[in-house]
Design goal:
The complex is a heterodimer of chains A (about 210) and B (about 290). By secondary structure, chain A is α/β, with parallel strands linked by helices. In chain A, about 20% of the residues lie in helices and about 25% in strands. Chain B has two domains: about 110 residues, no CATH class; about 130 residues. The chains are: A alpha/beta (about 210), B alpha/beta (about 290). At the A-B interface, α5 and α6 of A face α3, α5 and α6 of B.
């Protein structure tokens, strides 16, 4: 089963379909098993440019999981270096097209813009947070790495990872639930904020910048 | 090799600077400063949001794994910002200071299996320089014949959320509060909270941002020596944490570990304010030659 709920965890593995995604809610603790693909800024740009020119993506993305990461080089004897998530917002412009190609799950850090949140609902897909700045911890659950495309991009190449219990938190579900907005609404102490007016769609974040 | 000359000028060899920088790059990316670790532990103990607490637990596990297994704390090993405090009685021999620092960065990042994240031209070719050079180097001339090197590998997630604005001279503190809160709330999870918030007020535009960076590298346990500024730091920290952003923006009461404000006299027409955010992986290592 691509989504399996046990007493202790929610296990996720590809290939995912709409019914699998429908079981997941913002705030769920999840763990990934099996194959996930990496892509970040440069790989997204190249993949989408290729598709627009009529080329096939390097792999069939139907039901697949994409992790936004650019790891450090592996020391000899290791599979991978430090491998935490990068800022997802920078992938926002490419995300609706990735979802059209069949991607069902995204993993990164930080919030997603309104356009992506709508696209997740339209395409019945979801977005998870891995803990930003926990690249050493997250690397422990990565068991193998194979560069499958764009090798010249180095850390930004597209890689196939095999993971065993990679931990994440469901952030944006296919029903419009957004953990970051919910969290802020729950924990904001308006009495201490004085005249400051919180932003309505805070989790959308800024429209420029982003890093890691 | 260091030599004292008869004129009282101390000579420091460029090779020594290169070797030191290389070591600092590796140590900074593997070991989190103790004051930061203790501060994250306090946040973990006080966090009321269950998800927020879980995030802080994982961040602290990460600190241990990085230390014990020689893995970088974060895959973004940053732009290498180097702050040099150069005694004015020092003469650097055997090469240029900046060249020596860049050679050290190249050595440290290559030999340490750190990620090279610098590209050559910002809006054109953007080809990776492959050894994380060039560093961004600031030199402060100080009294004496010492040479202090501070290496700050600054990740993109937090650096990219920097903000700057010039307010009216008579505006007082309130617009500073709003500007800091807005910057942090809009940044959400991108800069990897809990944060160290550096705020630079005064000087000129570029100097205000440098002051903010100096705020970021000041210890989380070290309030401003100026009583009024220290009080403002406490007030701002409380209000930042009232935003509810929380660890990794999942919600919670620990959005920032500290707010450090640095000030400088400024022009009669202006109040420049710069905000520089530092992620919880507040990597900093220094050495004195």
């Amino acid at each position: 089963m691509p989504v399996e709920k046990t007493d202790s965890e929610i296990r996720i593995s590809e290939p995912l379909n709409e019914d699998d995604i429908a079981q997941l809610k913002a705030g769920d603790h999840v763990r990934f098993y099996g194959t996930i693909y990496t892509a970040r800024d440069a790989a997204h740009k190249r993949l989408i440019s290729g598709v627009e020119e009529g080329k096939e993506p390097p792999v069939d993305l139907t039901g697949q999981i994409i992790y936004y990461v650019g790891p450090t080089p592996a020391r000899p004897g290791r599979v991978i270096g430090s491998a935490g998530p990068t800022t997802s917002m920078r992938m926002d412009p490419f995300t609706p097209q990735m979802l059209e190609l069949g991607v069902k799950m995204l993993i990164g850090k930080g919030g997603r813009g309104p356009m992506v949140q709508q696209a997740l609902q339209d395409h019945k897909a979801a977005y998870c947070l891995a803990v930003g700045g926990a690249g050493a911890l997250l690397s422990k659950s990565i068991k193998s790495l194979e560069v499958i495309a764009y090798e010249d991009l180095g850390t930004e190449s597209m890689k196939k990872l095999e993971v065993d219990g990679f931990p994440a938190i469901l952030c944006c579900d296919m029903f419009g639930g957004d953990l970051l907005q919910q969290g802020r609404n729950q924990w904001r102490q308006q009495d201490k904020l004085g005249s400051y007016e919180p932003i309505g769609t805070a989790s959308a974040g800024k429209t420029d910048g982003g890093g890691k | 090799m260091t030599t004292d000359t008869p004129t009282g000028v101390r000579e420091i060899n460029a090779d020594e600077i290169t070797a030191t920088i290389a070591e600092l790059c590796q140590e900074a990316t593997h070991f989190l400063p103790e004051d930061v670790v203790a501060s994250i532990e306090r946040a973990r103990d006080t966090e009321q949001s269950e998800l927020g607490k879980q995030v802080l637990v994982e961040i602290l596990q990460n600190v241990d794994i990085a230390k014990n297994e020689q893995l970088p704390l974060c895959q973004d090993t940053g732009t290498t910002v180097v702050i040099v405090e150069l005694g004015q009685d020092v003469h650097i021999v055997g090469g240029l200071l900046t060249d020596a620092i860049n050679a050290g960065v190249a050595k440290g990042y290559t030999e340490g299996y750190l990620r090279a994240s610098m590209v050559d031209h910002p809006f054109s070719s953007r080809v990776n320089t492959k050894d994380n050079t060039p560093a961004v180097v600031h030199v402060d001339i100080v009294p004496g014949d010492g040479l202090k090197l501070k290496v700050l590998p600054k990740g993109g997630g937090c650096e990219n959320m920097s903000a700057f604005k010039v307010f009216l001279p008579s505006a007082g503190k309130e617009p500073i509060v709003d500007f800091v809160l807005r910057t942090i709330e809009e940044s959400g999870g991108n800069p990897c909270p809990p944060l160290i918030v550096g705020v630079g007020v005064g000087g000129s535009s570029e100097y205000a941002m440098y002051l903010a960076k100096k705020g970021v590298i000041r210890s989380v346990d070290n309030p401003s020596p100026d009583a009024e500024t220290a009080e403002f730091e406490r007030e701002l920290l409380e209000r930042v944490n009232a935003l509810g952003v929380g660890p990794q923006a999942v919600g919670g009461i620990n959005t920032a570990l500290a707010v450090n404000i640095e000030t400088y006299p400024t022009h009669i027409t202006a109040m420049p304010v710069a905000v520089n955010l530092q992620c919880h992986s507040a990597r900093l290592k220094e050495a004195e030659l």
